[in-house]
Task: structure prediction
Amino acid sequence: MLGFSAEEGEAAPAPAPTRRKSKTKDKDDDSVNMEKGENGVYVVRCDSNCSDSSRGSCRSAAGSNRSTGKSSDKTHQIDQYNDEQDNWEYNLTRYNLTFFGLFVSTTTAFYVLYFVQSSVRDYTLPIYYSSSNYDKTLQSFELAQEEVFTLPLFTLVLAFMTSGAISTSVTFIPCINTCYFDQLEKGVNLFKWFDICVSSACLNLLVATQFGVGDLNSLIPVAGLSVASAFLFYLYERINTMSGVLIQPTFKSPMVFAIIVWLFIWPTFILSAVLSNNTSTFDFGQFPTWMYGNAGCALLYSALMWLNEMLYFSGCGPWGRQGYEYAEKGQILISFVAKSAVAWLTYAFDVQGIN
Result:
């Protein structure tokens, strides 16, 4: 898809799917399609059967319309669109740089604390493997456990904070930033989904271990289901943004399966909490409040990420006017707030033992 400058008649970068476009064809010109988005912006596009060698004629046709004074109101809207096209990458880069600074400063502080304070490094949990072995003499199964390694739990905090810092740095790293903006123009951001996969797995693993889950038979499914849920949501975005055009109505099956897969993570936390209870009735007071706070942050991280995607595809409010750019900003904000909250709660109340 090509956009054109009203003054120079030169091809502008392909518009991002953040600008929602209708599929109605303008009948004023047979060689050029003038498409109007919901925000009143017109986009010039060659016909689908227009070859690369003949795109110059489309430029000439569009320029002819402007030079002869036809569709002057559309020319004004094309200028408006090109101004937005020039600014949205700059605005998003500035937004990413702001949160990159926040991520780097916070992550650096945690790395310093990890290497300076021994209490942070000593915050560990034995990770073991359990199985039921059949005893021929007793003719029954017996539970066998073997410790595999000791996990420094704060490394999970460092992992998801580092992942967030990397995901916000893609807008200014040479070559990578070009790939980043090319993906955004198609309505997909692979860097974001890589961060979501890593962060979801680490957040859920941290919450599980804090509730006492140390068996690899449980931890591996928690990590796997977290990644699977994020990947299904990536498919939901990918399938419904084909060739940079939003598909309406959206194909919702990947989203439904992502939520179902995610729900299977939480029985691990609940069962561990119930089994660690010493009384016959479950007492929520047996766990400190900050642990429920961490679980709530992990829950909100996933839930708000889903909501952000749903609002983008529904076109509600600013998600409909600004589209993927707004959804991208929302995801960055959700990521920083949720991760920082879990990290500081873990450090302050668990590692340092503040009551």
User: Anything to note?
Assistant: The beta strands are 3-4, 11-12, 32-36, 42-46, 124-135, 140-152, 241-242, 245-246. The longest strand covers residues 140-152. The chain has two domains: 3-82, 87-351. Residues 3-82 form one domain.
